[in-house]
Structure formats: structure tokens, C-alpha cells
Amino acid sequence: MANYSNEITNAVLSINAELGNDSDILHNLKWLCGTRRGDVFTSRMSEECTSFLKLFEILNDLCIISPDNVTFLSKILEDVGKLNLKAMIDRASQDNHRNRNERQLPSGNRQVHETQHRPVEPVSPQVVMAPREELLGEDLMPHFEVLVQYIGRDWRYLGRQLGLQEFDFENIMEQYPRNLREQVMKMLSTWKERYRVKATKAVLVKALRKCRMNLAADILEKMSVTSG
Asked: Where in this chain does the record put each DED domain (predicted)?
């Protein structure tokens, strides 16, 4: 995924987390790939594909999708009825193209481009998005404020247990190269934003204990949680 924009990468990882172990949806997606691109998408590839992220990587390796064109991915998500996930990919693709075009403009023309040529995103009446609070699930931000002082310099180890990737850590270090507290906060908030309703207190406690951060886990277990 190294050549893909942050917008598309984050969308793919969010979809991967959203689908989780939904084997029926994954089976249908693989079936569509085999039906429409059976010339290159083999049965062995289908068997090796155990997650949406793996499917994304295979489609990229086969050049069915590319950093500039994820139309095939958007279409198969639509055809399996996952219109909210299709909208996520489409929005990320539009943001990617817009950001790339803006970077190519002379600096003096960027403001004019933003105000006069901002593309209007299509709105599908079939896609009904839940309120942001509902999508995010448990409100853990107050807990993060407390936990930062107990996690320390091993925050990347915890981040891996929570499912974050190396590029996440690189981005965090670039933003906060000398501020450990902000590094930890950004890691936790990135996890929450990406995994949303699946980013729960119980998951965080389990990850903390795997990292032998038992004091932080004990403190978190005693804190109450509210849901959006």
C-alpha cells in the first residue's frame, strides 16, 4: 500500500476493520472478482484471500486497481450491497485526486481553485450514514487523557497490538518528533478513528495486558465508559 494516498489507505483499513470476520461478504467479493476477472484472479488467489486487506493487495498486484484508479473496488462493494463502504472508497478517491491537483497548482492559484473549482461530492439517497457519535461507539477520549502518563515509550508496541501499521507510527513521529505525550494520544485517537465501534475499552485493556502494561490496564478497567 506504499504508493497509495493516506486517504485511500485509511479507507481500506477502515473497511477491513468494518468487515472483520464477515466471511459471507468476503466470499461474495471474491466471487465477483473471479467472475469478472477470472483471466487473472485465480482460485488459488481466492483461497489465499482471508481478509479485505488481502483482497486489496491482490487486486493491486494484478493491476486491477491502482493508486489512481480504485473503480473496480468501488463497484464490487456496491454490488454486494455495501453502499456505505463504497461511499467511503469513492470519497477517499475524490479527496486523493483533489489533493493531488491542488499540489500541482502554483501557490498563488490554490485559493482560487479551492473556492471556485471545489468538486461537489455526489449524494446517493440509498446511503444513510449513522451519526458520528454512533459510528465511533464508546467515548474513550477521557480515558486516553489519563492513560498517556502510564503508556510511555513502548506506545508503538501497544499500537501494533491494536492493529495499527508502521506508516501510522512514521506519520505520528513526523507530527510530534519530541513530544511523547502527543505521540501516545495521537496513536490512541488514530486507533479509535479507524476501528470506531470496534475500538472498545475491553479491546484496549486486552492489548495493554499483552504489552505487560498492567497498571494502565487496571486503571482503565476501573473507569466508566459512555457510548455515543
From this structure: 7-91
